[in-house]
Amino acid sequence: MRTRILHRWKTVFLGGLLGIFSLSAQAEGTDYTPTPENLQARKEFQDGKFGIFLHWGIYSMFGQGEWYMNTANIDCHEYAKAASGFYPSRFNAQEWVAAIKASGAKYICITSRHHDGFSMFDTKYSDYDIVDATPFKRDVMKELSEACRRQGVKFAVYYSLIDWNFPGNGITPHNADAISKEHHAFSMHQVEEIMTNYGPVSEIWFDMGSLSGQQSKELYDLVNRLQPQCMVSGRLGNDRGDFAVMADNAYPNYKIGVPWQTPASFFDETWSYRSWQERGSLDKKIDEKLRSLVKVVSRGGNFLLNIGPRGDGSVVEFERDALLAMGKWMKRYGEAIYNTTANPFDHAVEWGNITCKGNNLYLFVEKVPTNREIVLNGLIGKAKKASLLADEKVLNLKQDGQSVSVNIPGDVKPDRGMIVVKLEFAGTFRVVPDQVLETGELSAVNAIPVYAYSSMDYYSSFRSTVGFSWHFKKLGKTITPTIIYTTGDQGKELRLVVDGKEQVTTLTGGEVQQLNNHPEGITWGKVYIHEPQADRFNGNIGGIKEEINVNAEGWRSWDDFRAGKALNVPMREKQSIHVLHKFTSDREQDVLVELGVADGVQVALNGENVLLRTYVGGIP
Q: pTM of the full predicted structure?
Protein backbone atom coordinates (compact mmCIF):
# COMPACT_ATOMS: atom_id res chain seq x y z
CA MET A 1 0.00 0.00 0.00
CA ARG A 2 1.40 3.43 -0.96
CA THR A 3 1.23 6.17 1.65
CA ARG A 4 1.10 9.91 1.98
CA ILE A 5 2.72 12.00 4.68
CA LEU A 6 0.95 14.82 6.49
CA HIS A 7 3.08 17.79 7.38
CA ARG A 8 1.51 20.26 9.80
CA TRP A 9 2.49 23.92 9.52
CA LYS A 10 0.95 26.70 11.56
CA THR A 11 0.33 30.32 10.63
CA VAL A 12 -2.15 33.06 11.49
CA PHE A 13 -4.73 34.33 9.00
CA LEU A 14 -6.05 37.78 9.91
CA GLY A 15 -8.93 39.84 8.51
CA GLY A 16 -12.60 40.64 8.67
CA LEU A 17 -15.46 38.30 7.97
CA LEU A 18 -16.33 39.89 4.62
CA GLY A 19 -12.84 39.95 3.14
CA ILE A 20 -11.42 37.69 0.49
CA PHE A 21 -8.38 35.67 1.50
CA SER A 22 -5.78 34.80 -1.14
CA LEU A 23 -3.15 32.09 -0.95
CA SER A 24 -0.72 30.85 -3.55
CA ALA A 25 1.73 27.96 -3.38
CA GLN A 26 4.74 27.29 -5.55
CA ALA A 27 7.45 24.65 -5.38
CA GLU A 28 10.90 26.15 -4.99
CA GLY A 29 14.00 24.82 -6.77
CA THR A 30 16.80 23.86 -4.43
CA ASP A 31 19.85 24.09 -6.74
CA TYR A 32 19.84 27.84 -7.36
CA THR A 33 19.09 30.97 -5.37
CA PRO A 34 18.89 34.19 -7.44
CA THR A 35 21.34 36.92 -6.48
CA PRO A 36 20.05 40.36 -5.46
CA GLU A 37 21.37 41.69 -8.80
CA ASN A 38 19.38 39.05 -10.68
CA LEU A 39 16.18 39.76 -8.77
CA GLN A 40 16.55 43.49 -9.47
CA ALA A 41 17.15 42.74 -13.14
CA ARG A 42 13.96 40.68 -13.29
CA LYS A 43 12.00 43.61 -11.88
CA GLU A 44 13.54 46.03 -14.38
CA PHE A 45 12.81 43.55 -17.18
CA GLN A 46 9.17 43.39 -16.17
CA ASP A 47 8.93 47.17 -15.75
CA GLY A 48 10.61 48.06 -19.07
CA LYS A 49 8.01 46.24 -21.20
CA PHE A 50 9.41 47.05 -24.64
CA GLY A 51 12.61 46.24 -26.55
CA ILE A 52 13.84 46.09 -30.14
CA PHE A 53 15.32 42.95 -31.71
CA LEU A 54 17.93 43.39 -34.48
CA HIS A 55 18.45 40.52 -36.93
CA TRP A 56 21.53 41.57 -38.89
CA GLY A 57 24.41 39.63 -40.42
CA ILE A 58 26.04 38.74 -43.71
CA TYR A 59 22.71 37.14 -44.74
CA SER A 60 21.32 40.70 -44.86
CA MET A 61 23.37 41.33 -48.02
CA PHE A 62 21.33 38.76 -49.95
CA GLY A 63 17.97 40.24 -48.93
CA GLN A 64 16.48 36.74 -48.67
CA GLY A 65 16.06 36.32 -44.91
CA GLU A 66 18.30 34.95 -42.19
CA TRP A 67 17.71 31.34 -43.25
CA TYR A 68 19.04 31.90 -46.78
CA MET A 69 21.99 29.54 -46.36
CA ASN A 70 19.53 26.80 -45.37
CA THR A 71 16.66 27.50 -47.75
CA ALA A 72 18.99 27.83 -50.74
CA ASN A 73 21.05 24.81 -49.55
CA ILE A 74 24.33 26.68 -49.90
CA ASP A 75 27.53 24.89 -48.92
CA CYS A 76 29.03 26.48 -45.80
CA HIS A 77 32.38 27.13 -47.49
CA GLU A 78 30.71 28.77 -50.47
CA TYR A 79 28.46 30.83 -48.20
CA ALA A 80 31.45 31.97 -46.11
CA LYS A 81 32.94 33.69 -49.18
CA ALA A 82 30.20 36.31 -48.88
CA ALA A 83 31.94 37.73 -45.82
CA SER A 84 34.62 39.22 -48.07
CA GLY A 85 31.96 41.48 -49.57
CA PHE A 86 30.31 42.60 -46.34
CA TYR A 87 30.95 46.31 -45.93
CA PRO A 88 28.02 48.04 -44.16
CA SER A 89 29.14 51.58 -44.96
CA ARG A 90 25.87 53.16 -43.76
CA PHE A 91 26.02 51.59 -40.30
CA ASN A 92 26.00 54.20 -37.55
CA ALA A 93 25.55 52.85 -34.03
CA GLN A 94 24.61 56.23 -32.56
CA GLU A 95 21.87 56.77 -35.16
CA TRP A 96 20.52 53.24 -34.71
CA VAL A 97 20.29 53.61 -30.94
CA ALA A 98 18.77 57.11 -31.19
CA ALA A 99 16.01 55.87 -33.52
CA ILE A 100 15.29 52.86 -31.31
CA LYS A 101 15.25 55.00 -28.17
CA ALA A 102 12.79 57.35 -29.89
CA SER A 103 10.43 54.37 -30.35
CA GLY A 104 10.05 54.09 -26.58
CA ALA A 105 12.04 50.86 -26.37
CA LYS A 106 14.12 50.38 -23.24
CA TYR A 107 16.66 47.90 -24.65
CA ILE A 108 18.24 46.59 -27.85
CA CYS A 109 18.97 42.92 -28.57
CA ILE A 110 21.42 42.30 -31.44
CA THR A 111 22.18 38.98 -33.12
CA SER A 112 25.76 38.36 -32.04
CA ARG A 113 25.70 35.29 -34.27
CA HIS A 114 22.90 33.48 -36.07
CA HIS A 115 22.60 29.91 -37.35
CA ASP A 116 25.04 30.57 -40.20
CA GLY A 117 27.81 30.72 -37.57
CA PHE A 118 29.12 34.17 -38.54
CA SER A 119 30.02 36.29 -35.49
CA MET A 120 29.10 39.98 -35.52
CA PHE A 121 31.77 40.66 -32.89
CA ASP A 122 35.52 40.24 -32.59
CA THR A 123 36.22 36.74 -31.30
CA LYS A 124 39.59 35.10 -30.82
CA TYR A 125 38.10 31.63 -31.19
CA SER A 126 37.31 31.98 -34.90
CA ASP A 127 38.38 34.10 -37.87
CA TYR A 128 34.84 33.87 -39.23
CA ASP A 129 33.77 37.21 -37.76
CA ILE A 130 33.14 40.78 -38.84
CA VAL A 131 36.60 42.02 -37.83
CA ASP A 132 38.73 39.24 -39.34
CA ALA A 133 36.68 38.03 -42.33
CA THR A 134 35.30 41.28 -43.79
CA PRO A 135 36.86 44.43 -45.23
CA PHE A 136 34.80 46.46 -42.72
CA LYS A 137 37.17 45.50 -39.87
CA ARG A 138 34.97 47.09 -37.19
CA ASP A 139 33.39 45.47 -34.13
CA VAL A 140 29.80 46.63 -34.66
CA MET A 141 28.62 44.94 -31.50
CA LYS A 142 31.07 46.92 -29.37
CA GLU A 143 30.00 50.14 -31.11
CA LEU A 144 26.36 49.35 -30.35
CA SER A 145 27.06 48.50 -26.72
CA GLU A 146 28.92 51.79 -26.26
CA ALA A 147 26.17 53.77 -28.01
CA CYS A 148 23.57 52.16 -25.76
CA ARG A 149 25.50 53.18 -22.65
CA ARG A 150 25.86 56.77 -23.88
CA GLN A 151 22.14 57.08 -24.64
CA GLY A 152 20.77 55.23 -21.62
CA VAL A 153 19.42 52.20 -23.49
CA LYS A 154 20.08 48.69 -22.21
CA PHE A 155 22.18 46.38 -24.36
CA ALA A 156 21.33 42.70 -24.93
CA VAL A 157 22.54 39.99 -27.30
CA TYR A 158 21.08 37.04 -29.19
CA TYR A 159 23.25 33.92 -29.45
CA SER A 160 22.36 30.94 -31.63
CA LEU A 161 23.13 27.58 -30.08
CA ILE A 162 23.13 25.85 -33.48
CA ASP A 163 25.79 26.57 -36.07
CA TRP A 164 25.64 25.34 -39.67
CA ASN A 165 29.29 26.29 -40.18
CA PHE A 166 30.81 24.52 -37.16
CA PRO A 167 32.96 21.48 -38.10
CA GLY A 168 30.85 18.33 -38.16
CA ASN A 169 27.47 20.10 -38.02
CA GLY A 170 26.10 21.01 -41.44
CA ILE A 171 22.54 22.06 -42.27
CA THR A 172 19.68 20.04 -40.79
CA PRO A 173 15.94 20.29 -41.53
CA HIS A 174 15.05 21.17 -37.94
CA ASN A 175 16.19 23.57 -35.23
CA ALA A 176 16.86 21.14 -32.39
CA ASP A 177 20.30 19.76 -33.16
CA ALA A 178 22.18 18.07 -30.35
CA ILE A 179 25.29 20.00 -29.36
CA SER A 180 28.63 18.19 -29.48
CA LYS A 181 31.12 18.68 -26.65
CA GLU A 182 33.44 20.56 -29.05
CA HIS A 183 30.66 22.89 -30.14
CA HIS A 184 29.57 23.43 -26.53
CA ALA A 185 33.13 24.33 -25.51
CA PHE A 186 33.25 26.84 -28.38
CA SER A 187 29.96 28.39 -27.23
CA MET A 188 31.24 28.62 -23.67
CA HIS A 189 34.33 30.50 -24.87
CA GLN A 190 32.32 32.93 -26.99
CA VAL A 191 29.74 33.62 -24.29
CA GLU A 192 32.61 34.33 -21.89
CA GLU A 193 33.95 36.86 -24.40
CA ILE A 194 30.57 38.56 -24.69
CA MET A 195 30.12 38.72 -20.93
CA THR A 196 33.65 40.07 -20.48
CA ASN A 197 34.31 42.47 -23.36
CA TYR A 198 31.02 44.27 -24.06
CA GLY A 199 30.11 46.00 -20.84
CA PRO A 200 26.83 45.38 -18.98
CA VAL A 201 24.58 42.96 -20.89
CA SER A 202 20.95 43.12 -19.76
CA GLU A 203 19.95 39.79 -21.30
CA ILE A 204 21.38 37.02 -23.44
CA TRP A 205 18.86 35.47 -25.78
CA PHE A 206 19.89 31.87 -26.40
CA ASP A 207 18.03 30.12 -29.20
CA MET A 208 17.59 26.70 -30.82
CA GLY A 209 19.34 23.40 -30.23
CA SER A 210 18.85 20.41 -27.94
CA LEU A 211 21.33 20.85 -25.14
CA SER A 212 21.87 18.35 -22.38
CA GLY A 213 20.85 19.40 -18.89
CA GLN A 214 24.52 19.82 -17.97
CA GLN A 215 25.23 21.98 -21.02
CA SER A 216 22.34 24.31 -20.19
CA LYS A 217 23.49 24.53 -16.58
CA GLU A 218 27.08 25.33 -17.54
CA LEU A 219 26.07 28.18 -19.84
CA TYR A 220 23.65 29.57 -17.27
CA ASP A 221 26.21 29.39 -14.47
CA LEU A 222 28.83 31.07 -16.67
CA VAL A 223 26.57 34.04 -17.40
CA ASN A 224 25.43 34.25 -13.80
CA ARG A 225 29.01 34.23 -12.52
CA LEU A 226 30.32 36.91 -14.88
CA GLN A 227 27.24 39.16 -15.00
CA PRO A 228 24.70 38.16 -12.34
CA GLN A 229 22.35 40.93 -13.46
CA CYS A 230 22.17 39.48 -17.00
CA MET A 231 18.83 37.82 -17.71
CA VAL A 232 19.04 34.46 -19.49
CA SER A 233 16.31 33.49 -21.94
CA GLY A 234 14.33 30.30 -21.33
CA ARG A 235 15.29 29.02 -24.79
CA LEU A 236 18.58 27.94 -23.26
CA GLY A 237 16.54 24.82 -22.59
CA ASN A 238 16.08 22.32 -19.79
CA ASP A 239 14.06 24.92 -17.87
CA ARG A 240 17.16 27.05 -17.29
CA GLY A 241 16.58 30.74 -17.61
CA ASP A 242 15.35 33.87 -15.88
CA PHE A 243 12.44 34.58 -18.20
CA ALA A 244 10.18 32.49 -20.37
CA VAL A 245 10.08 33.08 -24.12
CA MET A 246 6.86 32.43 -25.95
CA ALA A 247 6.79 30.94 -29.44
CA ASP A 248 7.51 33.50 -32.15
CA ASN A 249 4.64 35.99 -32.55
CA ALA A 250 2.61 34.13 -29.91
CA TYR A 251 0.27 35.92 -27.51
CA PRO A 252 -0.90 33.80 -24.58
CA ASN A 253 -4.55 33.89 -23.59
CA TYR A 254 -3.63 33.08 -19.99
CA LYS A 255 -1.68 34.78 -17.21
CA ILE A 256 1.92 33.76 -16.63
CA GLY A 257 3.37 33.81 -13.13
CA VAL A 258 7.03 34.31 -14.12
CA PRO A 259 8.82 37.02 -16.15
CA TRP A 260 8.12 36.38 -19.83
CA GLN A 261 8.55 37.81 -23.28
CA THR A 262 6.97 37.60 -26.72
CA PRO A 263 9.39 37.97 -29.66
CA ALA A 264 7.53 39.57 -32.56
CA SER A 265 8.55 40.16 -36.17
CA PHE A 266 7.32 43.08 -38.26
CA PHE A 267 6.30 40.56 -40.89
CA ASP A 268 5.29 36.98 -40.21
CA GLU A 269 7.49 35.56 -42.97
CA THR A 270 10.89 36.80 -41.86
CA TRP A 271 13.09 38.38 -39.20
CA SER A 272 16.02 39.75 -41.21
CA TYR A 273 15.87 42.00 -44.28
CA ARG A 274 14.13 40.71 -47.40
CA SER A 275 14.37 42.98 -50.42
CA TRP A 276 11.07 41.80 -51.90
CA GLN A 277 9.00 41.96 -48.70
CA GLU A 278 5.49 43.35 -49.25
CA ARG A 279 5.11 45.84 -46.42
CA GLY A 280 1.59 47.15 -47.00
CA SER A 281 0.05 50.10 -45.18
CA LEU A 282 2.36 51.86 -42.73
CA ASP A 283 -0.53 53.08 -40.57
CA LYS A 284 -2.04 49.62 -40.33
CA LYS A 285 1.31 48.14 -39.36
CA ILE A 286 1.83 50.77 -36.63
CA ASP A 287 -1.64 50.09 -35.22
CA GLU A 288 -1.06 46.34 -35.37
CA LYS A 289 2.22 46.46 -33.44
CA LEU A 290 0.90 48.86 -30.81
CA ARG A 291 -2.10 46.58 -30.19
CA SER A 292 0.29 43.63 -29.89
CA LEU A 293 2.41 45.57 -27.40
CA VAL A 294 -0.65 46.39 -25.28
CA LYS A 295 -1.86 42.78 -25.44
CA VAL A 296 1.47 41.49 -24.12
CA VAL A 297 1.80 44.18 -21.42
CA SER A 298 -1.76 43.66 -20.21
CA ARG A 299 -0.90 40.01 -19.61
CA GLY A 300 2.25 40.96 -17.68
CA GLY A 301 4.79 40.34 -20.43
CA ASN A 302 7.64 42.05 -22.24
CA PHE A 303 7.36 42.84 -25.96
CA LEU A 304 10.46 42.34 -28.15
CA LEU A 305 9.77 43.76 -31.63
CA ASN A 306 12.19 42.89 -34.42
CA ILE A 307 13.56 44.94 -37.30
CA GLY A 308 15.96 43.78 -40.03
CA PRO A 309 18.48 46.38 -41.27
CA ARG A 310 19.88 46.13 -44.79
CA GLY A 311 23.28 44.67 -45.57
CA ASP A 312 24.68 48.18 -46.09
CA GLY A 313 23.85 49.07 -42.47
CA SER A 314 20.81 51.26 -43.16
CA VAL A 315 17.51 50.83 -41.38
CA VAL A 316 14.55 50.14 -43.68
CA GLU A 317 12.58 53.38 -43.94
CA PHE A 318 9.24 51.62 -43.40
CA GLU A 319 10.44 50.11 -40.13
CA ARG A 320 12.16 53.32 -39.02
CA ASP A 321 8.99 55.39 -39.64
CA ALA A 322 6.89 52.81 -37.79
CA LEU A 323 9.21 52.93 -34.77
CA LEU A 324 9.15 56.73 -34.64
CA ALA A 325 5.33 56.77 -34.84
CA MET A 326 5.12 54.17 -32.09
CA GLY A 327 7.39 56.38 -30.00
CA LYS A 328 5.07 59.37 -30.37
CA TRP A 329 2.17 57.21 -29.15
CA MET A 330 4.28 55.92 -26.26
CA LYS A 331 5.03 59.49 -25.15
CA ARG A 332 1.30 60.07 -24.81
CA TYR A 333 0.43 56.75 -23.18
CA GLY A 334 3.65 55.41 -21.67
CA GLU A 335 2.25 55.91 -18.17
CA ALA A 336 -0.15 53.05 -18.92
CA ILE A 337 2.66 50.82 -20.23
CA TYR A 338 5.88 51.19 -18.24
CA ASN A 339 6.14 49.94 -14.66
CA THR A 340 2.64 48.45 -14.81
CA THR A 341 1.34 45.05 -13.82
CA ALA A 342 -1.07 42.76 -15.62
CA ASN A 343 -4.83 43.01 -15.77
CA PRO A 344 -5.81 42.21 -12.14
CA PHE A 345 -9.07 40.51 -13.14
CA ASP A 346 -9.15 36.75 -13.62
CA HIS A 347 -10.77 37.23 -17.01
CA ALA A 348 -10.16 39.27 -20.14
CA VAL A 349 -12.59 42.01 -21.16
CA GLU A 350 -14.42 42.04 -24.46
CA TRP A 351 -13.74 45.69 -25.25
CA GLY A 352 -9.93 45.66 -24.97
CA ASN A 353 -7.20 45.34 -22.34
CA ILE A 354 -6.28 46.56 -18.85
CA THR A 355 -3.04 47.38 -17.02
CA CYS A 356 -2.54 48.39 -13.40
CA LYS A 357 -0.17 50.68 -11.48
CA GLY A 358 -0.55 51.71 -7.84
CA ASN A 359 -4.12 52.88 -7.22
CA ASN A 360 -4.88 53.23 -10.94
CA LEU A 361 -6.31 51.07 -13.68
CA TYR A 362 -5.62 51.86 -17.33
CA LEU A 363 -8.28 50.82 -19.81
CA PHE A 364 -7.30 50.31 -23.45
CA VAL A 365 -10.64 50.42 -25.26
CA GLU A 366 -10.49 48.95 -28.75
CA LYS A 367 -14.19 48.14 -29.20
CA VAL A 368 -16.46 50.82 -27.73
CA PRO A 369 -19.80 49.29 -26.64
CA THR A 370 -22.92 50.54 -28.39
CA ASN A 371 -24.05 52.43 -25.25
CA ARG A 372 -20.46 53.77 -24.83
CA GLU A 373 -20.39 52.52 -21.23
CA ILE A 374 -17.34 50.63 -19.97
CA VAL A 375 -18.43 48.54 -16.99
CA LEU A 376 -16.12 46.86 -14.48
CA ASN A 377 -17.68 44.52 -11.94
CA GLY A 378 -16.06 43.13 -8.81
CA LEU A 379 -14.06 46.16 -7.61
CA ILE A 380 -13.65 46.69 -3.86
CA GLY A 381 -12.59 50.29 -3.32
CA LYS A 382 -13.70 53.88 -4.03
CA ALA A 383 -13.29 55.01 -7.63
CA LYS A 384 -12.72 58.78 -7.61
CA LYS A 385 -11.90 59.86 -11.18
CA ALA A 386 -11.90 58.70 -14.78
CA SER A 387 -10.12 60.64 -17.50
CA LEU A 388 -8.59 60.34 -20.95
CA LEU A 389 -4.90 59.71 -20.49
CA ALA A 390 -3.92 61.77 -23.55
CA ASP A 391 -5.41 65.12 -22.50
CA GLU A 392 -6.75 64.49 -18.96
CA LYS A 393 -10.33 65.20 -20.06
CA VAL A 394 -12.59 64.07 -17.20
CA LEU A 395 -15.17 61.40 -18.05
CA ASN A 396 -18.49 60.64 -16.37
CA LEU A 397 -17.94 58.04 -13.64
CA LYS A 398 -20.54 56.05 -11.70
CA GLN A 399 -20.13 53.48 -8.95
CA ASP A 400 -22.77 51.18 -7.53
CA GLY A 401 -21.21 48.97 -4.85
CA GLN A 402 -18.60 46.84 -6.57
CA SER A 403 -19.63 47.96 -10.08
CA VAL A 404 -17.91 50.90 -11.76
CA SER A 405 -18.93 52.38 -15.12
CA VAL A 406 -17.22 54.98 -17.29
CA ASN A 407 -18.97 56.81 -20.13
CA ILE A 408 -16.98 57.57 -23.25
CA PRO A 409 -18.48 60.57 -25.12
CA GLY A 410 -19.30 60.16 -28.78
CA ASP A 411 -16.78 62.76 -29.88
CA VAL A 412 -13.83 60.83 -28.41
CA LYS A 413 -12.00 59.06 -31.21
CA PRO A 414 -9.45 56.24 -31.00
CA ASP A 415 -5.76 57.05 -31.19
CA ARG A 416 -4.05 54.30 -33.15
CA GLY A 417 -7.11 52.10 -32.70
CA MET A 418 -7.40 52.57 -28.93
CA ILE A 419 -8.98 54.97 -26.43
CA VAL A 420 -6.91 54.97 -23.24
CA VAL A 421 -8.74 55.77 -19.97
CA LYS A 422 -7.13 56.31 -16.58
CA LEU A 423 -9.33 55.13 -13.71
CA GLU A 424 -8.13 56.42 -10.33
CA PHE A 425 -9.13 55.13 -6.88
CA ALA A 426 -9.19 57.09 -3.62
CA GLY A 427 -6.96 54.50 -1.99
CA THR A 428 -6.03 50.88 -2.45
CA PHE A 429 -8.51 48.66 -4.23
CA ARG A 430 -8.99 44.97 -4.77
CA VAL A 431 -10.56 42.86 -7.46
CA VAL A 432 -13.01 40.14 -6.48
CA PRO A 433 -11.69 36.84 -7.89
CA ASP A 434 -13.86 34.93 -10.33
CA GLN A 435 -13.60 31.85 -8.12
CA VAL A 436 -14.09 32.19 -4.34
CA LEU A 437 -14.06 28.85 -2.54
CA GLU A 438 -16.40 27.78 0.23
CA THR A 439 -14.42 24.65 1.10
CA GLY A 440 -11.43 24.35 3.39
CA GLU A 441 -9.75 21.69 1.28
CA LEU A 442 -7.38 23.21 -1.23
CA SER A 443 -6.02 21.05 -4.04
CA ALA A 444 -4.95 21.21 -7.65
CA VAL A 445 -8.53 20.39 -8.60
CA ASN A 446 -10.03 23.61 -7.21
CA ALA A 447 -6.97 25.84 -7.67
CA ILE A 448 -6.31 28.54 -10.22
CA PRO A 449 -3.06 27.37 -11.83
CA VAL A 450 0.00 29.64 -11.90
CA TYR A 451 1.44 29.11 -15.37
CA ALA A 452 4.87 29.42 -16.91
CA TYR A 453 6.09 28.59 -20.40
CA SER A 454 8.77 25.92 -20.26
CA SER A 455 11.37 25.14 -22.91
CA MET A 456 13.33 21.92 -22.71
CA ASP A 457 14.59 22.34 -26.28
CA TYR A 458 13.22 23.94 -29.43
CA TYR A 459 10.77 21.07 -30.00
CA SER A 460 9.68 20.74 -26.39
CA SER A 461 8.06 24.02 -25.33
CA PHE A 462 4.76 24.09 -23.53
CA ARG A 463 2.59 25.84 -20.98
CA SER A 464 3.64 24.45 -17.62
CA THR A 465 2.18 24.78 -14.13
CA VAL A 466 4.56 26.17 -11.51
CA GLY A 467 2.12 26.90 -8.70
CA PHE A 468 -1.48 27.15 -7.55
CA SER A 469 -3.60 29.91 -6.06
CA TRP A 470 -6.86 29.89 -4.13
CA HIS A 471 -9.27 32.56 -2.93
CA PHE A 472 -11.74 32.08 -0.12
CA LYS A 473 -13.58 34.11 2.50
CA LYS A 474 -11.75 35.10 5.66
CA LEU A 475 -13.12 33.56 8.81
CA GLY A 476 -11.63 36.07 11.24
CA LYS A 477 -9.81 33.42 13.23
CA THR A 478 -6.52 31.55 13.43
CA ILE A 479 -6.24 28.63 11.04
CA THR A 480 -3.68 25.84 11.26
CA PRO A 481 -3.43 24.39 7.75
CA THR A 482 -2.36 20.82 7.10
CA ILE A 483 -0.18 20.31 4.03
CA ILE A 484 -0.46 16.87 2.46
CA TYR A 485 2.44 15.71 0.32
CA THR A 486 3.87 12.48 -1.00
CA THR A 487 7.10 10.84 0.09
CA GLY A 488 8.69 11.83 -3.20
CA ASP A 489 8.23 15.53 -2.33
CA GLN A 490 9.96 15.23 1.04
CA GLY A 491 12.70 17.81 1.52
CA LYS A 492 11.35 20.20 -1.11
CA GLU A 493 10.58 23.82 -0.26
CA LEU A 494 7.13 25.29 -0.72
CA ARG A 495 6.73 29.05 -1.10
CA LEU A 496 3.41 30.21 0.35
CA VAL A 497 2.11 33.72 -0.27
CA VAL A 498 -0.74 34.66 2.05
CA ASP A 499 -2.40 37.99 1.15
CA GLY A 500 0.93 39.24 -0.16
CA LYS A 501 3.02 37.93 2.76
CA GLU A 502 5.50 35.26 1.78
CA GLN A 503 6.64 32.29 3.83
CA VAL A 504 8.80 29.33 2.79
CA THR A 505 8.33 25.97 4.46
CA THR A 506 10.26 22.74 3.98
CA LEU A 507 8.26 19.57 3.47
CA THR A 508 9.60 17.28 6.15
CA GLY A 509 8.18 15.14 8.95
CA GLY A 510 4.49 14.70 9.62
CA GLU A 511 2.16 11.78 10.13
CA VAL A 512 2.03 8.87 7.70
CA GLN A 513 -1.45 8.38 6.28
CA GLN A 514 -2.71 5.65 3.99
CA LEU A 515 -4.20 6.55 0.66
CA ASN A 516 -7.91 6.20 0.08
CA ASN A 517 -7.18 3.36 -2.26
CA HIS A 518 -9.41 0.41 -3.22
CA PRO A 519 -7.78 -1.55 -6.05
CA GLU A 520 -10.69 -3.97 -6.19
CA GLY A 521 -12.90 -1.11 -7.43
CA ILE A 522 -10.77 -0.42 -10.52
CA THR A 523 -11.22 -2.12 -13.86
CA TRP A 524 -8.30 -1.64 -16.20
CA GLY A 525 -9.36 -1.71 -19.83
CA LYS A 526 -7.64 -1.88 -23.19
CA VAL A 527 -4.66 0.21 -24.26
CA TYR A 528 -4.37 1.93 -27.63
CA ILE A 529 -1.29 3.50 -29.17
CA HIS A 530 -0.83 5.96 -31.99
CA GLU A 531 2.20 5.29 -34.12
CA PRO A 532 5.22 7.61 -33.73
CA GLN A 533 4.73 10.88 -35.52
CA ALA A 534 6.72 14.03 -36.15
CA ASP A 535 5.10 16.27 -33.60
CA ARG A 536 6.69 18.63 -31.10
CA PHE A 537 5.97 18.12 -27.41
CA ASN A 538 3.85 21.24 -26.91
CA GLY A 539 1.32 20.33 -24.25
CA ASN A 540 -1.56 19.88 -26.68
CA ILE A 541 -3.70 16.91 -25.70
CA GLY A 542 -6.12 17.51 -28.57
CA GLY A 543 -4.79 14.57 -30.54
CA ILE A 544 -6.30 12.06 -28.09
CA LYS A 545 -10.04 11.51 -28.35
CA GLU A 546 -12.42 9.94 -25.86
CA GLU A 547 -13.48 7.29 -28.35
CA ILE A 548 -10.74 5.68 -30.44
CA ASN A 549 -11.49 3.96 -33.72
CA VAL A 550 -8.87 1.23 -33.82
CA ASN A 551 -9.38 1.03 -37.57
CA ALA A 552 -8.48 4.70 -38.02
CA GLU A 553 -5.14 5.59 -39.56
CA GLY A 554 -2.31 5.55 -37.04
CA TRP A 555 -4.22 4.02 -34.12
CA ARG A 556 -4.02 0.39 -33.09
CA SER A 557 -4.69 -1.79 -30.10
CA TRP A 558 -1.56 -2.30 -27.97
CA ASP A 559 -2.22 -5.93 -27.07
CA ASP A 560 1.19 -6.71 -25.55
CA PHE A 561 0.95 -3.87 -23.02
CA ARG A 562 1.23 -5.05 -19.41
CA ALA A 563 1.32 -2.87 -16.32
CA GLY A 564 4.78 -2.98 -14.74
CA LYS A 565 6.40 -4.36 -17.87
CA ALA A 566 8.99 -2.26 -19.70
CA LEU A 567 8.15 -1.88 -23.38
CA ASN A 568 10.30 -0.30 -26.06
CA VAL A 569 8.73 1.80 -28.79
CA PRO A 570 11.10 2.42 -31.72
CA MET A 571 11.23 6.15 -32.40
CA ARG A 572 13.41 8.64 -34.17
CA GLU A 573 14.41 12.06 -32.86
CA LYS A 574 11.69 14.70 -32.63
CA GLN A 575 8.85 12.17 -32.52
CA SER A 576 6.07 11.61 -30.03
CA ILE A 577 3.45 8.94 -29.41
CA HIS A 578 -0.05 8.99 -27.96
CA VAL A 579 -1.22 6.23 -25.64
CA LEU A 580 -4.78 5.83 -24.39
CA HIS A 581 -5.54 3.55 -21.45
CA LYS A 582 -9.18 3.04 -20.57
CA PHE A 583 -10.17 2.24 -16.99
CA THR A 584 -13.13 2.73 -14.67
CA SER A 585 -13.55 3.06 -10.90
CA ASP A 586 -16.71 2.27 -8.95
CA ARG A 587 -15.91 4.97 -6.37
CA GLU A 588 -13.86 8.13 -5.82
CA GLN A 589 -10.40 7.13 -4.64
CA ASP A 590 -6.67 7.88 -4.76
CA VAL A 591 -4.62 5.97 -7.30
CA LEU A 592 -0.87 6.33 -7.78
CA VAL A 593 0.33 5.48 -11.27
CA GLU A 594 4.05 5.29 -11.98
CA LEU A 595 5.18 6.24 -15.47
CA GLY A 596 8.65 5.78 -16.89
CA VAL A 597 9.52 7.59 -20.11
CA ALA A 598 12.63 8.73 -21.95
CA ASP A 599 12.10 12.48 -22.29
CA GLY A 600 8.69 13.90 -21.51
CA VAL A 601 5.15 12.95 -20.67
CA GLN A 602 1.75 14.58 -20.63
CA VAL A 603 -1.14 12.90 -18.85
CA ALA A 604 -4.83 13.74 -19.15
CA LEU A 605 -7.71 12.19 -17.21
CA ASN A 606 -11.16 12.48 -18.79
CA GLY A 607 -9.80 15.15 -21.11
CA GLU A 608 -8.25 17.30 -18.36
CA ASN A 609 -4.49 17.67 -17.95
CA VAL A 610 -3.25 16.19 -14.68
CA LEU A 611 0.49 16.10 -15.45
CA LEU A 612 2.69 17.97 -17.86
CA ARG A 613 6.43 17.85 -17.42
CA THR A 614 9.67 16.72 -19.00
CA TYR A 615 12.57 14.74 -17.64
CA VAL A 616 15.98 16.21 -18.33
CA GLY A 617 18.26 13.49 -19.66
CA GLY A 618 15.76 10.71 -19.16
CA ILE A 619 14.93 8.57 -16.13
CA PRO A 620 18.06 7.33 -14.27
A: 0.89
